[in-house]
Specification:
By secondary structure, the protein is α+β, with helices and mostly antiparallel strands. It folds into 3 domains: about 160 residues, protein yfey like fold (Sandwich); about 50 residues, no CATH class; about 100 residues, Calycin beta-barrel core domain (Lipocalin), CATH 2.40.128. The chain is built from 9 helices and 23 strands. The protein has an 8-stranded antiparallel sheet with strand order 2-3-4-5-11-10-9-8, with no helix packed on it. The chain has an 8-stranded antiparallel beta barrel with strand order 16-17-18-19-20-21-22-23. Strands 13-12-15-14 form a 4-stranded mixed sheet. A hairpin with a 6-residue loop joins strand 4 and strand 5. The N terminus is likely disordered.
Length: about 350
């Protein structure tokens, strides 16, 4: 009886200390290709090891290259059993994963696999649409793929002819490896983080901004450091604030001729000048305003001309350092009056033909 109990205790002790703890199932959906970097892998595992590997989809002589990743070189970690990481050719981003015979876990779509006993037949049960076999003429492997997952079966070189493929024969053969590949350049373009765009106080898309012409834009303000403070998480990639010119401001552009000028002491509007056809000399004595797109204005007062700037804000028209109240504006008529002056002068202009 004592011998029996001793054996039981010994077995329990072996199970407790000699057996590796059950490892967490690897879920490849948690490994983000083109987001995970080689530096991050090195931080996770200080013993990350560089290894050589066979590119199953390429020629064995190494002449053909795949530009999406660094060919024939990868990195293995004790934290990810059965996985070889390969980085982008030009950056530190991980753009490819090779799964080896040791891999047991879930593919990105959630399907669980044990690569040690996986056959082509089992793959087609899980992925019936992959029933197309392909291979480069110089490769030593057949592949079943949807261009995201690549399942490889070794080509039997003892068979007399490679083509046409003997599907019945290869269905029973084991999967030698699986590649999961992403194009990091295309990924970056597709997932490019755009700044928040505010147009006239409202959030809009880039497509909406493209509808406007440069001359329609009044101002553009770019926020970087203060963007998150003002707009929260939406502003983490910066904020572009765009203000467009009002319809009234667009109508201002062009040359205007003064027609009438009145004040608060006389309700009658007297026309300026003669009613008869104007001569060239009289035309020179007109009062005209020429509003330009760049916010400059040319003022001609009875033959004396000078340049100034203007601004239209709500119902206030500012010319130089003087403010006027805008009464009316359309394609043919402009009326404004003095703002805050002793004499309430009102001016009416017509659009020059």
């Amino acid at each position: 009886m004592r011998i029996y109990l001793t054996i039981i205790i010994l077995i329990s002790t072996i199970n407790l200390f000699g057996q590796n703890p059950e490892q967490k199932t690897i879920e490849l959906s948690e490994i983000k290709l083109c987001e995970l970097t080689l530096s991050e892998l090195k931080k996770q595992d200080g013993n990350l090891k560089e290894v050589e590997l066979i590119e199953m989809d390429l020629c064995s002589d190494g002449f053909v290259q795949d530009s999406r990743f660094e060919n024939r070189k990868g990195y293995i970690s004790k934290l990810y059993n059965g996985i070889i990481f390969q980085k982008d050719r030009d950056t530190e981003l991980i753009s490819k994963i090779r799964l080896t015979k040791e891999f047991k876990g879930k593919l990105p779509d959630g399907n669980y696999i044990d690569l040690s006993n996986l056959t082509a037949e089992k793959i087609l049960v899980k992925y019936p649409k992959m029933n197309t076999w392909s291979s480069r003429g110089c490769s030593d492997y057949w592949s079943l793929t949807d261009k995201l997952l690549y399942f490889y079966v070794a080509i039997d070189k003892t068979k007399e002819s490679r083509y046409p493929i003997d599907k019945k024969f290869y269905l029973t053969k084991p999967i030698e490896g699986i590649d999961i590949v992403s194009n990091c350049y295309e990924f970056a373009q597709k997932n490019k983080k755009e700044p928040l765009i505010i147009l006239n106080g409202k959030e809009v898309t880039k497509a909406e901004i493209e509808k406007y012409k440069p001359e329609d834009i009044e101002s553009v303000t770019v926020l970087n450091e203060t963007a998150i403070e003002k707009y929260g998480e939406k502003g983490e990639n910066g904020v572009i604030i765009i203000k467009t010119k009002s319809e009234s401001e667009k109508q201002l552009i062009g040359k205007w001729i003064l027609v009438t000028e009145t004040d608060s002491f006389d309700d009658e509007i007297e026309p300026l000048g003669e009613t008869e056809p104007e001569s060239d000399s009289k035309a020179e004595l007109e009062t005209t305003l020429t509003f330009n797109k760049d916010r400059t204005i040319f003022i001609n007062q009875m033959g004396n001309g000078y340049n100034a700037t203007y601004k239209l804000t709500d119902s206030t028209l500012t010319i130089g350092n003087r403010n006027y109240i805008l009464i009316e504006i359309d394609k043919k008529k402009l009326i404004y009056k003095n703002k805050g002056e002793l004499f309430d002068m009102q001016y009416e202009y017509k659009k020059a033909e």
